[in-house]
């Protein structure tokens, strides 16, 4: 590891809300405040995007797995953040509103980072996934949960409209009618219902089993060409937000530059020789 990369990863140890470990090309980001139900403090909103973007910028991993310590994944926004927001509701209305808009955009950026990085992000969830936690996991590539997991869009119940991604991303992941019911009522959706509607890929009996199985999925992803995986993520995100014609045009343009033969030949050669392929990492 170069001194530049080492200097940037040392800051992981200074995080207050996250624990970051990297092994076998898999970055594991854990929410590490279980006693506080992993609520999202002011530090969290800076640390999460900093962690995922550092991993991406310096190609520290090929896959990111996000999980949480303790009984619950996250209770969402910490009360201290709401208290600070309340203090800002003063002064001349236009300037107050402009400041509030910038703050919301900053919060959104923390989860936008999960979509923008080149590697897939897998979320392993247990217990409560509440409020801002739903915003967060909606931005991940795939979600997995334990039998005791439940999802709750809490914002409506506390008198506000969710504003950090839930309303924008969930309709692409679940049926519209169900999304609207969950948003309007604020009710809890359990693990089996979340699987049936397609929000999560698999349900596991406990957290230990879940993490073990999700890491196996991450290892499979990490074994593939990172160039191919990055292209897949780029195209899937683009296609979600554009029509078929534009998406087909984009992949044609992408392939004209990105489709080169070394990874293809390595994959084919490895299959013929019955060995694991070896691919170069993406460039920092």
TrEMBL record:
| Keywords noted in UniProt | Fatty acid metabolism, Isomerase, Lipid metabolism
SUPFAM superfamilies annotated for this entry?
A: ClpP/crotonase
Q: Does the keyword ATP-binding apply?
A: no
**Record bears the keyword Secreted:** no
Q: Which CDD domains does the record cross-reference, listed alphabetically?
A: crotonase-like (cd06558)
Listed GO molecular functions? isomerase activity
Q: Which Gene3D superfamilies match?
A: 2-enoyl-CoA Hydratase, Chain A, domain 1, Lyase 2-enoyl-coa Hydratase, Chain A, domain 2
**Pathway the protein contributes to:** Lipid metabolism; fatty acid beta-oxidation
Annotated GO biological processes are:
fatty acid metabolic process
Q: What NCBIfam families does the database record attribute to this sequence?
A: PRK06142.1 (NF004794)
Family in the record: Belongs to the enoyl-CoA hydratase/isomerase family.
- Name the UniProt record assigns to this protein: Crotonase/enoyl-CoA hydratase family protein
Lineage of origin: Bacteria, Pseudomonadati, Pseudomonadota, Gammaproteobacteria, Alteromonadales
């Amino acid at each position: 590891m170069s001194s530049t990369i080492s200097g940037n990863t040392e800051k992981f140890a200074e995080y207050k809300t996250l624990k970051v470990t990297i092994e076998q090309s898999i970055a594991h980001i854990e929410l590490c405040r279980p006693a506080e139900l992993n609520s999202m403090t002011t530090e969290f909103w800076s640390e999460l995007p900093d962690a995922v973007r550092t991993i991406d910028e310096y190609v520290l991993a090929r896959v990111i797995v996000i999980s949480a310590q303790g009984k619950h994944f996250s209770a969402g926004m910490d009360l201290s953040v709401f208290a600070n927001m309340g203090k800002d509701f003063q002064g001349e209305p236009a300037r107050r509103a402009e400041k509030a808009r910038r703050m919301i955009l900053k919060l959104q950026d923390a989860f936008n980072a999960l979509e923008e990085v080149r590697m897939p992000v897998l979320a392993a969830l247990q217990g409560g996934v509440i409020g801002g936690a739903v915003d967060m996991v909606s931005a991940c590539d795939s979600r997995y949960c334990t039998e005791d997991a439940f999802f709750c869009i809490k914002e409506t119940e506390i008198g506000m409209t969710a504003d950090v991604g839930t309303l924008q991303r969930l309709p692409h992941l679940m049926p519209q009618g169900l999304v609207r019911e969950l948003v309007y009522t604020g009710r809890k959706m359990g693990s089996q219902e979340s699987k049936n509607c397609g929000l999560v890929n698999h349900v596991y009996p406990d957290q230990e089993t879940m993490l073990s199985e999700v890491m196996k999925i991450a290892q499979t992803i990490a074994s593939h060409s990172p160039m191919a995986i990055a292209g897949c993520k780029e195209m899937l995100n683009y296609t979600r937000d554009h029509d078929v014609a534009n998406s087909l045009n984009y992949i044609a343009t992408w392939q004209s530059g990105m489709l080169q033969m070394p990874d293809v030949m390595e994959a084919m050669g490895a299959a013929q020789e019955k060995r694991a392929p070896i691919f170069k990492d993406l460039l920092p």
